[in-house]
Amino acid sequence: MVTHVIEKDPYDERGTLLAFVEAQRGGLRRALLGLTDEQAARRTTASELTLGGLLKHVAETEDTWVRRAQGVAPEIPRDPSNWGDSFRILEDESVAGMLAYWDRVAAGTERFIRAVPSLDDTFPLPDAPWFPPSTRVSMRWLLAHLVEEIARHAGHADIIRESLDGKTAFTLVAEAGAEGPERAE
């Protein structure tokens, strides 16, 4: 799992940005290392956030943003009636299933970004009170936003995991390294 991003090619902006996205994914994945579904569903703070819920939310959020950039509907539509479900692993779901889903989403993100003609290409932000009306953003913005979104929740995951069993991010990095080769950068 990636812990530091080393630029492989200073002329490959897409590759560098995708590597930063993957590095943040690795932080969240590591927070789930060795946990059961029950442990991943456990609340450890006053917040309702759980490790499994963060995993599901981040995977769905990445998928939704990439689909928005592609001009297609999200795979899992959310509205006020089911928004809370995006932060919970439901009875018919598992951490392993969510990790597999996120792997598919991540592969789709990579394919899309590698295929888009330019990182300067734009797409419209949704009509929502927290976005300025009629605003378009670039594919570069999309990647920066994914880094921001995933990093925020990876930080939450670090706190939840340490509260759950005392394992810090550094401990989990060491354990991940002992389990085998790092994930694709």
Produce a short descriptive summary.
Pfam families: MST (PF04978). The protein has helices at 13-31, 37-40, 51-70, 95-115, 139-165, 169-179, and strands spanning 122-124, 136-138.
SSE blueprint and pairings:
Elements: H1 13-31, H2 37-40, H3 51-70, H4 95-115, E1 122-124, E2 136-138, H5 139-165, H6 169-179
Helix pairs in contact: 1-4, 1-5, 3-4, 3-5
Question: Any key phrases for this structure?
Answer:
185 residues, mainly alpha, Four Helix Bundle (Hemerythrin (Met), subunit A), two-stranded antiparallel sheet, 6 helices, 3% strand, disordered C terminus
Give me the Rg, rounded. Answer: 17 Å
Cα distance, first to last residue?
8 Å
Spell the H/E element sequence. HHHHEEHH
Q: Tell me, what's the shape?
A: globular
Protein name: DinB family protein
Pfam family, one: MST
Can you put this structure into words, describing what you see?
With 185 residues, the chain is mainly alpha-helical. It has one domain (13-179): Four Helix Bundle (Hemerythrin (Met), subunit A) (Up-down Bundle), CATH 1.20.120.450. The protein has helices spanning 13-31, 37-40, 51-70, 95-115, 139-165, 169-179, and strands at residues 122-124, 136-138. It has a two-stranded antiparallel ribbon with strand order 1-2. The termini are close together. The model is unreliable at 181-185 (pLDDT under 50). This is DinB family protein.
